[in-house]
């Protein structure tokens, strides 16, 4: 296809064109859509004499990864499911590999790239527990459905469709995303580790005291106010390799977070594995642990509760009071028991055991707010979990600045190894960064 003199006979239309860069971006988007939809066709794009894309004919997976790029290929998995006669197949990015907007969420329905707000919402719902609300997944999903169940003639450019049963299609997309996330399990994107290495290299390049004469310069003085390194940390940091505990004694699952060596700035845990080092964000990790534990208990209908020694009085608004008088019993599923002590006064008698140390009024107020928005019945609990448990698990977790003993560090790492979705906290931040020996060798110039 070659396009020349497009506005020769319609010069007035030229006035409606936007900047060259904007129009070029639109051309690239259209080309990428065609390329995704037709993997068996070789396709090349030249713009102003410069080759932008050159895709060879091949398998669907090869084309998806060629269009989306090497970074996506390294941070995504392939997933296929069948749901009520609908087949959903695609490549879904890791939860810690996300984007600032929805432009990298791509859908093909029966071979045609479409843009559908409901499908975008369904995919985001699938990632709800593992991604912060203002970030978006990166994915390419192909939906194959009976043509009789989809109307493709609702948009002039056929970029939108109408499904006979949109809820079924949404459920299929959500199921595909959750199946993929389940398989991702404890994998973390390579991007945080690469960002850490890049930051280290920049710092090293800016501050290395190398002198041009083949030696290196030492600073004229050293600060004398540093605290001495505790003896147990010295032993773990500087013990001979054979004196350290073998990693196998700690590994209890497919994920091995190694042996803790030290706590850094009372915020991060440095651990050693057989093939490198791990940096753990103690707050983010404990946040995910708390969230998953409470979610599991709630889903099983066995959320552990604790009676308050002194019930807490809660004065509510008229709007909240009206809701509570009708729905207070529904809060028991969340481990909360309260009684009406007046028209707008309620008495809190129990909380979930894991949140027993939190302020009762704040805990229950957040729960009621979430339930009023999303419903306390079974169908609304997923959203309540995301909003309420996400916030509460965060506030009830180990804080940055909290000193952890060596045994507490070991316990945290071992619990992380058996916790679902541990690679990211409830807000989508990575809980740990892994640096291999190869990464460290390249950082220090031992390898190219």
Please characterize this protein's 3D structure.
This protein is α+β, with helices and mostly antiparallel strands. 37% of the residues lie in helices and 21% in strands. It has 14 helices and 18 strands. It has helices spanning 11-14, 20-37, 60-68, 70-74, 117-126, 166-184, 191-207, 231-238, 282-299, 318-327, 360-374, 381-395, 406-417, 437-443, and strands at 43-47, 50-55, 76-83, 86-93, 98-99, 105-109, 112-114, 136-137, 139-144, 150-151, 162-163, 259-264, 268-273, 276-281, 305-315, 337-340, 345-352, 432-436. A five-stranded mixed β-sheet has the order 3-4-9-6-7. The chain has a four-stranded antiparallel β-sheet with strand order 12-13-14-18, sandwiched between helices. Strands 15-17-16 form a three-stranded antiparallel β-sheet, covered by helices on one side. The protein is globular, with a radius of gyration of 27 Å. Mean pLDDT is 82; it is low at 209-226 and 240-250.
